[in-house]
Design a protein that fits this description.
single chain; Aspartate Aminotransferase, domain 1; Aspartate Aminotransferase, domain 2; 2 domains; 4-stranded antiparallel beta sheet; 15 helices; about 15% strand; binds pyridoxal-5'-phosphate
């Protein structure tokens, strides 16, 4: 920032400098999501100015009443005293199976429909078990950009991973890129999120088909993270049992695990309950390698009675009642869960325009030939500034986001902005702050 503008920033220059020094961050631009959150908390306290907070992906909505009520009733009836089955209550397993039939148009036996302690536990359990399934296959491939915690899970487990940024490999180009990894024989699974956190790209049916075909050819498991299920609002995926369905690789391969978080789509993040959906084929896959670690050579049994038993012995009983009730209502068509979260798309639409009207660009801007959807996240850059520099500068204007650099993206100029915590009341502030930023930097 030019010297002459230092006394004209929405958040006083000296306050930001003081707090940043006190936090002893090596670089604001490269800080983790939680570090940025702490910094902004401190800055709001010191400056008494409310920031436009776009750093953390937390749901900004009230949980659906049908879930809360079911959980209260379950607690009142005393379920807290009883150990739930490791692989979930019968009713929940049935509703998960119905849900994937109704909204993905796939059949999965309730046996493979397993509630987990958030979708994070599902991915942790999967990486742990998948790395033990076949001798010599010890590496996960991430299609980036992605959610940094999945890589953290690998580090904690001491497991290997490789990754690439999909930006340059959309469409048919994805085939050769994936095959270049698969043919080496060391990849046990692939993980990506769709819609994608952080870029909000959505894979096309053609791309999912390529992944499915290659998964079949090379016997690789595709782990599809559907944390933002049906939240590509360009299409209406909300009607049970009717097309269009949420796109999924599960229609192109029998080798899959789906992670369906209830945190964003059902605003139920606090109760830490998600769904792990293992294909019938993978569930029944047998391998003598598993016997080194588990009492069974069958993947599904090893997962439930080996891994999930060892990690947490299942997930909270009362939350399973909540999730079962929300799924049942969605399956019966009495609760339109997509309408409930559509507000995120409306906010993204307005906010993206404010950014682009003030000199910013959308970094991941298309799905091949379609403009990117409006949803929970979007990505931004400003000409002449790296992502790290851009965050450092935006903080003086009362705006926060995170750098794409921590997500495996090679677009180092980019930031991820999350719309969930920004209230429409703050739009005038956002607009005036962006105008000032542009005036000072153009
Ligand atoms: C892509 C992705 N996967 C998984 C999660 C975590 O889900 P859960 O809260 O169900 O553990 C998130 C949360 O932000 C996410 O963005």
């Amino acid at each position: 920032m030019k010297e002459e503008f230092k006394n004209d920033t929405p958040v006083p220059y000296e306050v930001v400098d003081k707090v940043v020094k006190e936090m002893k961050l090596a670089s604001v631009g490269k800080a983790s999501i939680r570090e940025i959150k702490r910094l902004i908390d401190l800055l709001e306290e010191a400056s008494k100015i409310k920031f436009v907070r776009m750093e953390m992906g937390v749901p900004g909505l009230t949980p659906p009443e049908v879930g809360t009520q079911a959980e209260i009733e379950a607690l009142r009836s005393g379920v807290a005293a009883i150990y739930p089955d490791i692989d979930g209550t019968k009713k929940l397993k049935k509703e998960i199976s119905r849900f994937v039939k109704n909204f993905l148009d796939i059949h999965v036996d309730p046996a493979g429909c397993i509630p987990t302690v958030g979708s994070m536990q599902g991915s942790f359990a999967s990486f742990l078990t998948l790395a033990r399934l076949h001798a010599g296959r010890d590496t996960t491939l991430f299609i980036d950009p992605g959610f940094p915690v999945h890589k953290q899970q690998h580090k904690v487990l001491g497991q290997k991973f490789e990754s690439f940024d999909v930006y340059e490999y959309r469409g048919e180009k994805l085939r050769d890129k994936l095959e270049s990894y698969f043919k080496k024989g060391h990849i046990h699974s692939v993980l990506y999120s769709n819609p994608n956190n952080p870029s909000w790209i959505c894979f096309t049916e053609d791309e999912l088909q390529i992944m499915g075909e290659l998964a079949n050819k090379y016997n690789v498991v595709i782990c599809e993270d559907l944390a933002y299920f049906a939240m590509d609002f360009r299409k209406d995926y909300s009607r049970p049992g009717e097309p269009p369905y949420q796109p999924t690789v599960a229609r192109y391969t029998k080798n899959f695990i789906l992670f369906i978080s209830s945190s964003k789509v059902f605003s139920y993040a606090g109760q830490r309950i998600g769904m792990m959906v293992i294909s019938d084929h993978l569930f029944h896959t047998q391998s003598s390698e598993l016997l080194k670690y588990y009492g069974s050579d069958t993947f599904g049994r090893a997962m439930i009675f080996g891994t999930v038993y060892a990690l947490s012995s299942g997930t909270a009983h009362s939350a399973q009642y909540a999730l079962a009730a929300m799924l049942e209502a969605a399956n019966n068509g009495s609760f339109n869960f997509v309408d409930y979260v559509k507000v995120y798309g409306d906010k993204a639409h307005t906010m993206k325009k404010m950014f682009t009207d003030n000199g910013f660009q959308i970094v991941y801007d298309t799905d091949i030939d379609q403009p990117i959807a409006d949803g929970f996240y979007f990505t931004i850059s400003y000409p002449g500034l790296s992502g790290a520099e851009l965050i450092e500068e935006l903080v003086y204007y009362g705006i926060s986001a995170i750098s794409l650099a921590i997500t495996g993206s090679e677009r180092l100029e980019g930031l991820r902005a999350c719309v969930s915590l920004v209230h429409p009341d703050q739009f005038p502030d956002l607009e005036s702050r962006l105008k000032k930023f542009h005036l000072h930097h153009s």
